[in-house]
Amino acid sequence: MKLQIKGLSKTYKNGVKALDNVDLEIGTGMFGLLGPNGAGKSSLMRTISTLQSPDSGSITFGDIDVLKDQMSLRKVLGYLPQEFGVYPNMSAEKLLNYFAQLKGIASKEDRKKIIKEVLEVTNLWDVRNKSVSGYSGGMKQRFGIAQLLLNNPKLIIVDEPTAGLDPAERHRFLNVLREIGNNHTVIFSTHIVDDVRELCHELAILNGGNILYRGTPKEAEESLVGKIWMRIIERDEFDEFARNYNILSSNYNQDNTLNIRVYSDEKPHETFVEAKPQLEDVYFVALKKDRV
Ligand SMILES: Nc1ncnc2c1ncn2[C@@H]1O[C@H](COP(=O)(O)OP(=O)(O)OP(=O)(O)O)[C@@H](O)[C@H]1O
C-alpha cells in the first residue's frame, strides 16, 4: 500500500517551522528518512502516526485519509517512538501477552501463536523468559519491534532506532528490520548515513522541514559522479583548504594527516584525485546546498 503525503506543514507555537510543505510518496519496502538532529524527522513521523496534527496538507495510506480517519490508520500502524519509556520488571513473553490483550487479541491460542512468531522474527525467543527491564539497548529496540508486530501492521514507523546502539547490536537490529521490510511498508528515520545505505531501497533527505533529495541510494551516488575529489593534507593545512575548497568531509589518518573530500564540478587542483561518490557525500552536498 502506498503512503502519500502532500503539502504537509507544521509550525510550533514557539515559531519553529518543523515541516515546510512536504510532499512524499512511499511504497512497500524499507524507506529511509535521513536528516540531522532537528531536521523535522520526528515531527513528520508523529504526524503520520496521528499523534499530532499538521497546520495544512494531506496524508493518505491506501484508501485511508489519515488526518480524517485516525482510527483506521492506527489499526494498521506499528510505531516505535524515539523513546519508548520504562519497561516493567516482566518477562518479554508475559509483557507481549499483556500488549496483545490490550491490542484486542482475545483468544489465548492466537496470542500464543503470534507471540512466538514475533519473538522469533526479532531473535528474542531464547531470552523470552528474561525481564525486559534487564535487556540491553539493542534487545529493548528489538522488543519494541516485537510489540509493534503483534497486530500485523501494514505500515511500520521506526524513529531513530539505532541511536546509541553498539555496532553488533545495530547490525542485529538492522537485520531484523531488513527481514520485516520484505513485506511491509517501513519508514525508518535516522541521522546515520550507513543505516540507510545498508538497508533502504529508497530514501529522502530532510532538513529544516524540507525534502532536499528523494530517490534510490544508487541514483543519489550516480548523481555525483565526476564531482567528488579527494586528497591528503597536513592537519594544519585544513583551515586554508576549507577557505579555498568546498570540503564535504575529512578523516584523520594515523600519521596526523587528513583525507579530505571536496565537491566541485571540475578537478579543483591537479593534486586532487577523483573519488567514487558515496551516499555520505550526497548527504553532505544536500545539507551544504541547503545552507547557501
Ligand atoms: N513540541 C514542540 N514544540 C516546539 N518545537 C518543537 C516541538 N517538537 C519539535 N520542535 C522543534 O522542531 C524542529 C524539528 O524537530 P524534530 O524533533 O521533528 O526533529 P528531528 O529531525 O526528529 O530531530 P531529533 O533527532 O533531534 O529529534 C526542531 O527545531 C525542534 O526543536
TrEMBL record:
UniProt cross-references to CDD domains, sorted A to Z: ABC_drug_resistance_like
Range of residues in the leader sequence: none
Keyword field: ATP-binding, Nucleotide-binding, Transport
Every ABC transporter domain range: 3-233
InterPro entries from the UniProt entry: AAA+_ATPase (IPR003593), ABC_transporter-like_ATP-bd (IPR003439), ABC_transporter-like_CS (IPR017871), P-loop_NTPase (IPR027417)
Molecular function in Gene Ontology: ATP binding; ATP hydrolysis activity
Family (UniProt): Belongs to the ABC transporter superfamily.
Protein name: ABC transporter ATP-binding protein
